[in-house]
Amino acid sequence: MTYKYQMLPLEKVFRDPVHNYIHVQHQVILDLINSREVQRLRRIKQLGTTSYTFHGAEHSRFAHSLGVYDITRRICDIFQRNFSKEKYGKDGWDDSHRLVALCAALLHDVGHGPYSHTFEHIFHTDHEALTVAIITSPETEVFQILNNVEEGFPEKVASVITKTYENPQVVQMISSQIDADRMDYLLRDAYYTGTEYGTFDLTRILRVIRPYAGGIAFSMNGMHAVEDYIVSRYQMYVQVYFHPVSRAMEVLLEHLLDRAHELYQRNADIFTLHSQFLIPFLKEDFSLADYLKLDDGVLNTYFSQWMEEQDLILSDLADRFLNRKPLKSIAVDTSDNPRLTEMKTLVEKAGFDPRYYTAINSSYDLPYDLYHPEKGSHRTQIELMQKDGSLIELSKASQLVSALTGQGQGDVRFYYPKEMTQQDSKNSDLFEDYYQAFAKYIHNGELVN
Questions:
Q1: Which domain of life is it from (predicted)?
Q2: Could you tell me if 353 and 341 are in contact, meaning their C-beta atoms sit under 8 angstroms apart?
């Protein structure tokens, strides 16, 4: 028995600090929320290591997924009420696509793993590919629920994630430069980090959103609300997502997992007693079921156990990560400055393996995309709709956005053990010469030119 159009007898609501109430009206949405794959997202932080910098940022990918779903639901309601095909013609909204959009919105992050972006880099996973796998694999509860809508429905939802779905309005609703995903995470991350400058007028943006045959645009008279969104996004990237301390903790996490990976190649027995769920990834042969066993808590439990391991690098990195002992950093103009090699040598002479205690980290490489309309695709453009229905790209109409997009955002930083510049008494005499030589390379938090 299918339930494609089965509505709940009474609307279900979830109380949310960002959106007040999140409304659920379809049985399939409630069933998806209760599936084990979506519930797993409760155990994965939305912002990974950022809570080590902004202590309130403990919110989960589950809460974010509900928020993206609700913004998408509101957009569908607005489109159906004001811009349906019946009223708006060929550029209008076809409400038969609503359920696909709602399911894709709820499930868009279901493939994220623990500390997802760092984990992806080390173990060569891909959260979007894993999202598609979770949606389309008969072994998951998500697939069984979607397939109960109608045969082939999971593949429809997955095609929104891969951006091949037949309706570009649905694709851009979930994935574009101003989509339900970004609108929720900016507001949610601003709320939980306590950064007021990350907020923007969501109500006004939803008031001026417009469908057209090629996707989604925004009414010209709502340009200032969209500008506000772009400025808020810029501020969040610079002040929160690119924060040097959060990146320092990401570097520690990356080096910790790297060390475990290296030790496993030498002696797999080290991890068989207490890190069983991670072994498929250490040996680079994992299944979807293996992946779904992992969450932040599982990794943190293993890290606690690694603190007791005989390998001094593994135990020390685990201690630094779990107990918030971030690496220090300085801004550098380029990653290949020969002075950095000299600094790494001094770090090694002071007793630290530079492979695990130094790093070059560029915020340009972080998994956040600023607004780059010059790339020339709809994914990187925000379109404003003029009175005659013609479209103009945002930075062509807004001097403010034009000025922001013309700036180079981000930086390159060199990370090193804080002991190199904050000596403890037991080592200061032994390595004093190296500490003093190292300090000569630093002035005002930057590499000396």
A1: Bacteria
A2: no
Strands, E assignment, 175-321: 209-212, 215-219
Quote the CA–CA distance of 314 and 260 in Å, as a whole number: 7
Instruction: Report DSSP letters for 18-29, one per residue.
Output: TTEEEEEEEHHH
Q: Is the dihedral of CA 428, 431, 432, 434 positive or negative?
A: negative
Give dist(CA 233, CA 241) in Å, integer.
10
CB of 313 closer than 8 Å to CB of 259: yes
Spatial separation of the C-alpha atoms in residues 29 and 48, rounded to whole Å: 26
- Are 142 and 38 in contact, with CB atoms under 8 Å apart? yes
Question: What are the tens digits of pLDDT across the range 294-352?
Answer: 999 999 999 999 999 999 999 999 999 999 999 999 999 887 889 999 999 999 999 99
Q: Distance (Å, rounded) from C-alpha 369 to C-alpha 417?
A: 29
CA torsion sign, 445 to 447 to 448 to 449?
negative
Residue 366 has what pLDDT?
A: 42
Residue 1 reports pLDDT greater than 50: no
Confidence at 367, pLDDT banded by 50, 70, 90:
very low
Give the model confidence (pLDDT) of 373-386 as tens digits.
Answer: 555 554 558 999 99
For tokens 């808020």, the residue is 232
Quick one: what percent of the chain has pLDDT higher than 70? 93
Average pLDDT over residues 354-362: 95
- Distance (Å, rounded) from C-alpha 394 to C-alpha 384? 6
What residues contact residue 296 under an 8 Å CB cut-off, 6+ apart?
Answer: 43, 44, 45, 114, 115
Compute the distance between CA of residue 25 and CA of residue 38 in angstroms, rounded to an integer. 18
Neighbouring CB atoms inside 10 A of 206's CB total: 18
Please give the helix or strand (H or E) that residue 10 lies within, else none.
strand 7-16
CA angle, residues 195, 196, 199, in degrees to nearest 5: 110
- End-to-end CA gap in the chain: 71
CA distances from 75 to 28, 65, 101, 247 (A): 19, 15, 10, 35
Q: How confident is the model at residue 428 (pLDDT cuts 50, 70, 90)?
A: low
HSE value, Cβ hemisphere, 13 Å, CA-based, for 366: 26
Q: Are residues 220 and 179 in contact, defined by beta-carbon separation less than 8 angstroms?
A: no
Tokens 């569908």 sit on residue: 76
Name the average pLDDT for the chain. 92
Tokens for 427? 């080592």
Query: Highest mean pLDDT: which of 31-35, 370-374, 378-382?
Result: 31-35
The three-class DSSP label of residue 13 is strand
Single-letter residue type at 340: L
Q: What is the pLDDT of residue 80?
A: 98
